[in-house]
Amino acid sequence: MSNDETMDPEIGSKLPRGAALSWGLVKPPQRGPKREMSLSQIVETAIDIADKEGLSAVSMNRIASALGFTAMSLYRYISSKDDLLLLMQNAACDIPIPPEDSADWRENMRIYVKSTMQVFRDHPWFGDIPITGIPITPNNLRFIDWGLRFMKDLPLNDYERMSLILLLSNYARSSGMMQRDMDRAIQAGSTPEQFSGLDYTEALKQLMKPDRFPFLYPVVMSGVYTEDNEEVNPIGNDIDFGLERILDGIEQYFQAKKQQGPSDKS
């Protein structure tokens, strides 16, 4: 039997409507004033508006106007703004998954984090949608499946693997949103030097007093705080440095598990 043959016919009713739509479990309307409209057109148009103008610009009226339909006709396909946001998130995560290769687990984790971060830069609105629960749409779950694939040979149980995916995803989310904010600031007329504080180095050095900021003072004076002195920054990119320390911790964790042996339970 195929999965379709064994699937509960009511499974769609057990999911939020937006998730059911993402899985193709809700049939499109069979009749209407203009049947050439499709769910994918609606979602693509919403994403295009959000990419250019932000999430607040997305509305059923705005999408309908862009497509040449009435807002009421859109509700035949998507019943609420929440459903639309879920579909937009799912579509934004439809990115190529690297083929399985011989790359080691650290390199795969780097790619995983960088790919996730890029979603926040390509679609700045993505991080503006609140997290309301675990991922349940197909493209989000493909990402998780990818993460589980490159951890399959590590000495970890299922709980540990999922916890590491959450750790990597959280780091990618925070770092991706920081880079997104930098992109936004530069588009609004700022410069990388202003964003990093480099333009304010001299002012900070005069304002900073060792009695008030005893631990931050030497950092600012050395130029590290605003990256004023590249010679005192041997680690390179801050985000890459942080990621490598996370990977070091992961490696230390499962190396310790190997040393415990199969008789020890964790």
Radius of gyration: 24 Å
Mean pLDDT: 88
- CATH architecture assignment name of the largest domain: Orthogonal Bundle
CATH superfamily of the largest domain: Tetracycline Repressor, domain 2
Helix coverage percent of residues? 55-70%
CATH level 1 class label of the largest domain: Mainly Alpha
Tell me the series of helices and strands, N- to C-terminal: HHHHHHHHHHHHH
Helix/strand/pairing class, anyone?
A: mainly alpha
Q: How many distinct domains?
A: 2
Outline type: flat
CATH fold call of the largest domain: Tetracycline Repressor, domain 2
Question: What portion of the residues fall into strands of 2 or more residues?
Answer: under 5%
Number of strands: 0
Low-confidence stretches: none
Distance between the termini: 38 Å
Profile the largest sheet: none
Number of helices: 13
GO molecular function, one term: transcription cis-regulatory region binding
InterPro entries: Homeodomain-like_sf, HTH-type_TetR-like_transc_reg, HTH_TetR, Repressor_TetR_C, Tet_transcr_reg_TetR-rel_C_sf
Protein name: TetR/AcrR family transcriptional regulator
Organism: Paenibacillus lautus (Bacillus lautus)
